[in-house]
């Protein structure tokens, strides 16, 4: 089997390691089947898509909707490199699944509007599939309603014209969409279980998602969440596109 490619951009090792291990675990992948590139660590090398089964883009500290003048050189580089790669990915309809940050990258690349209108605090929310989502092959065995972890400042407020909305929540109408046949993005985190989110709450307690002194109460609020369903999406992606 050709490996999958994980494009990550978390500089904090604890969060980066946990994230990579979650994609392995929930994708039922061995380490040699998931090649990770940490975009924050250096320039993106030339990617030959023919060497991979598909691409994952994980969450990120970057926000696509930040004013251009406020973005660091690192963020601008990462966005530029992802944009060039997405040109080919979209042109070829190459299997792609972006989690959280993937909404901003794929959504903006295809002409959607990404802004701060539908941000959600860290926690579990109820996700509901649309009519299109109920018949999408990537959502096989996923119930019409399920719980998933979120935590984002920005979201899609206007879908690209060529996108199909697959799922939403009460506070964020676009939680998952598809471009063409094989390009997907989720606003929620299909790779996050409770231990994974607890790690991120600890790592990012000073990142502005919540007051630092409230970290323990935020952690307590998610400990009993049932988020067993979202990882099915990662498994379905691997099963559908492994080659």
TrEMBL record:
GO CC terms of this entry = cytosol
Write down the Gene3D superfamilies for this protein, in alphabetical order: 3.40.50.880
Instruction: Say which domain of life the source belongs to.
Output: Bacteria
| Stretches assigned to the Glutamine amidotransferase domain | 49-192
Coiled-coil parts of chain: none
Q: Name one Pfam family in it.
A: GATase
Per UniProt, the keywords (alphabetical) are:
Glutamine amidotransferase
Q: What is this protein called?
A: Glutamine amidotransferase
Organism equals Arthrobacter jiangjiafuii
């Amino acid at each position: 089997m050709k490996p999958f490619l994980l494009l990550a951009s978390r500089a904090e090792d604890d969060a980066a390691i946990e994230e990579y291990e979650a994609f392995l675990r929930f994708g039922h992948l061995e380490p040699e089947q998931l090649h990770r590139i940490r975009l924050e660590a250096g320039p993106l090398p030339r990617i030959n898509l023919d060497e991979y089964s598909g691409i994952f883009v994980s969450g990120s500290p970057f926000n696509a909707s930040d004013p251009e003048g406020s973005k660091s050189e690192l963020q601008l580089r990462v966005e530029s490199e992802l944009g060039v790669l997405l040109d080919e990915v979209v042109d070829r309809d190459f299997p792609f699944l972006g989690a959280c940050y993937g909404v901003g990258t794929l959504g903006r690349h295809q002409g959607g509007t990404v802004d701060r209108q539908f941000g959600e605090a860290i926690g579990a929310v109820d996700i509901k599939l649309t009519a299109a989502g109920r018949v999408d092959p990537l959502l096989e065995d996923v119930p019409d309603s399920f719980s998933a972890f979120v935590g984002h400042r920005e979201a899609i407020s206007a879908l690209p014209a060529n996108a199909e909305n697959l799922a939403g929540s009460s506070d964020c109408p676009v939680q998952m969409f598809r471009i063409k046949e094989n390009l997907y993005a989720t606003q929620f985190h299909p790779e996050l279980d409770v231990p994974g989110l607890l790690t991120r709450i600890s790592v990012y307690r000073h990142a502005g998602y919540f007051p630092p002194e409230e970290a323990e109460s935020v952690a307590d609020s998610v400990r009993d969440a049932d988020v067993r369903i979202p990882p099915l999406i990662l498994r379905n992606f691997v099963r559908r596109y492994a080659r």
